[in-house]
Amino acid sequence: MGRITEELIRKNAEHNNCEIFSLEELSLHQQEIEKLENIDKWCRDLKILYLQNNLIAKIENISRLKKLQYLNLALNNIEKIENLEGCEGLEKLDLTVNFVGELSSIKILQYNVHLKEIFLMGNPCADFEGYREFVIATLQQLQWLDGKEIERSERIQALQNYPEIRGKIKEQEKAYCLKRAKEKEEAQRKLQEDEEKEKQKENRNKPGFNGRWYTDINNTVPYSLERKENYQQLAKKEKEVNKKTQDELDKEFWEKPTLFTPESRLETHRYLEKQRRDQEKSSEKKKHQKLPRTLITADGRVLNINEPKLDFSLKDDEKNNQIVLDLAVYRFMDTSLIDVDVQPTYVRVMVKGKPFQIVLPAEVKPDSSCAKRSQTTGHLMITMPKGLCQGSCVKSIWSDLNLVQVGEVILVNRKANKPMKYPERKKLQENKRSNQIEKLEVDPSKYSFPDVTNIVQEKKNTLERIPAKPQAIPCAEEDPDFEDNLEVPPLI
């Protein structure tokens, strides 16, 4: 049963910043409301009130809404027009497709002097002979009835025939009241039978019942033979019903002919509510029964999983020594719903709780990995640089080192240096010199403070450099055949 609560009103008052004391328009349609309450206490300034398509059986608790101009109560279970004389500003009333059979109850609307339009189509009273003339003559302030304008000639004729029409309406009302009394009795009897069946079904499900004997906690009570036969028949019917599928039961319920009464509407509502509860229970059971997905087997093998069914591409970028995963995440998905976990041998991405897991072709560095998301396409780009992992035997990046694994410890053995030849050594030294950067050294004691007096330099006599004369280098041992020619320059 839906009730009118403060939370419900605030939820439907978002256009008014959820303030209900100054609310002028309120829509509570399709909320399965069975009783009008609290509206006249919390929303005194209401001008428009929508309550269509509910299960309201009586008009009540709205007489304090003095500013109310439009009231929509279409598609409800109202059988009588009442408690509206306090709505002084009411201009339009919609009671389409209700169960108003007491047409004489519209006399109460004579006090609503501003009422201009009313809808009563789809009610039992609309089928009465002289219905339109009776309403026009009773409510002389009306201008429209069931969407049709009331002409002046039509009103004059209705007033002239009012005494005769009133008698016919009373007779039809009495016949309708007798019919409704029988329908209510039938509906009450059917409801009691359904309740008894439910109780019997619950008793049969209790432990200790075997069709003939029902074992209570304190004593054992034997049933009579007649009751035994009744239970056996009911048990057979239940077995037949249980054999039917849910679709067959639904088809049987909806194709069963029933009268259009407030009770039948309530019955339909209860049936739909029961179906909803059963579906919720079955969904909860499925959730509990669902086993968690295996991501890593018992022997430690990582599985490839794509539960969210996303397109992806895995590239091995040898140039930058990294692995790139491009995952086509939904474009408008919030990033807070994505969780990335990078491990040395695999990567796992949780998308709205659904795992995407893939084994990597090489080991990566999880701490140096990064994840970015495109603002245009929404794709998730995970960049994972390749690297060494402790405890694994891989090739070293240094040419002069060898890695040897012993258990979990990595030992480093350095290669023996081979003797190098003189040209190779000279070439190595030249490369080292070329790589070194030459820097000028300045003595800070001499040049830390500039001499201001010697800013302007004086012209000094520059001495020309005289080239030295070549001197003959005497040889320690002179060859007797050696001739010294002065014209030949000496060897340096």
TrEMBL record:
Subunit structure: Interacts (via CS domain) with ZMYND10 (via C-terminus).
Gene: DNAAF11
Main location: other
Gene3D superfamilies: Ribonuclease Inhibitor
Keywords, alphabetical: Cell projection, Cilium, Coiled coil, Cytoplasm, Leucine-rich repeat, Repeat
The UniProt record lists the keyword Metal-binding: no
Presence of the UniProt keyword Coiled coil in the record: yes
PROSITE patterns associated with the record: CS (PS51203), LRR (PS51450)
Gene Ontology CC annotation, any one: cilium
Species: Monodelphis domestica
Signal peptide bounds: none
Localization terms from the record: Cell projection, Cilium; Cytoplasm
Domain CS: 305-402
InterPro entries: CS_DNAAF11_C (IPR056496), CS_dom (IPR007052), Leu-rich_rpt (IPR001611), LRR_dom_sf (IPR032675), U2A'_phosphoprotein32A_C (IPR003603)
Biased composition (Basic and acidic residues): 188-205, 265-283
Pfam families from the UniProt entry: CS_DNAAF11_C, LRR_9
Protein name as it appears in the record: Leucine-rich repeat-containing protein 6
Residue ranges, annotated region (Disordered): 188-215, 265-293, 467-492
UniProt record similarity statement: Belongs to the tilB family.
GO biological process: epithelial cilium movement involved in determination of left/right asymmetry; flagellated sperm motility; outer dynein arm assembly; reproductive system development
Start-end of Acidic residues biased regions: 476-486
